[in-house]
Amino acid sequence: MGKAKPRYCEICGAPIRGQGHKIRLEGAEVLVCNRCYEKYGGKKPGTFSIMPTGRQPVRRTYSRPSRPRPSRPRIERPLYTEEIVEDYAERVYRAIQRSGKSYEELSHEIGLSMNDLRAIAHGYREPTIKEARKLEKYFKITLIERAETEIEKKPSIPRDYEPTLGDIANIRIKKRKKK
To answer: Which of 96, 120, 141, 174 has the fewest CB atoms within 10 Å of its CB?
Structure first.
């Protein structure tokens, strides 16, 4: 007679000493060692659970949804864009000349680098809105103008409208390339 083939735990892979235990885990019947049986086998036979024993699934309680708030009519604010004036370089240059200070002194007081201030004053670079605000505040000049745009009302869809497939699908016909 030959020696019996050793059996291994189907969960941890350890050799099983003795008879071993058959447990049902996630719907499958598996042969496990004593350690895995203690961990996973404390359930009634035939039960199905993803959670190992000792841990109960946490029941979450959900708060009742709050009452829907009445929607306020949307106030349409006029849209505007801020743009730098076209003659910004002349305005900044004149303001610097009127101040009588050097670029270095002004750069420290305004909060811009000396090179940026010089480039803006000579028209090599347009200031950003943030930089223009700093220059406006310091020199008390106008560099930013607001250009208001009109709001175009979108055509509304009637309530009894039922869309067709052609309304929903974006159909593109590709032209075949000639060879």
So the answer is: 174
